Amino acid sequence: MALQKSSLSTFVLRIALACFLIVAGILTLQLDSGLLGKLQAGFAGNEIASAIHSITKGDLANILIILMGILQLGAGVFLILGFFMNVGSFSQMALTIILIMWLVVIFLVDVIGKGGLLGGAFKNMNAFLSFLKVLSAHLLVLGAILSVKE
Question: Could you list the residue range(s) of the whole structural domain that residue 113 is in?
């Protein structure tokens, strides 16, 4: 019974993570460099784009965002395809890269970013609750990546 429950939970996590990665990849690839792109990166929760923009700007940022969008989309698709066929080690390699990038995102957004641990999370109760909500969502995704990657 415990094995079946564990297998079911891994199955559900894998589907949820695949859907998250596919949608996040599509949204990341749809970002433009104008005002709409900045709004989408900031308000739509596109953590990858926000983290990359906090490190670098210009063409390098656009190239990195496109690469991460393609990687997210590919990892999500290969996670789904893994249910039906042998996809080799690509999904595990992509998940490892996504895991590293997600740790960087957590550091940049939740620790040093605006509203993060060092960037005003303790300013007032609303800021603190907002920080906890974003951090918990990021940790949920991190846990899903670690669980599915095993």
Answer: 2-149
